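TL;DR need structure tokens for one chain.
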Amino acid sequence: MPQEDRFLKPIKRYRIDPRDACRACALDDLTLLYHARSGQTHMVISPVPEILAAMEDGASVTADDLWDRLTQSYDLGDRGQALAQIGAQLEALEALGLVRAA
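>> reply
TL;DR here they are.
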């Protein structure tokens, strides 16, 4: 096994647990997400609503999977930068309890 392979991280997969479904209310550029399970309301902006909508089927996805899904409807620009942004958003959504590691 080459030396650098030891340092590669596994690709993280995320999913939306049906118990964590949110009710959304769009207000201009802002979206309010009510997370019934925690009783918290989150104020988010794009691309969070689009990411959550792309995950609605409940399948576990990677940032790369989401990039594939989102590019069907949106111009995400540079793939590398978009993947980094999607990955960061997934980590933030996991910290809020809106998505879970699969």
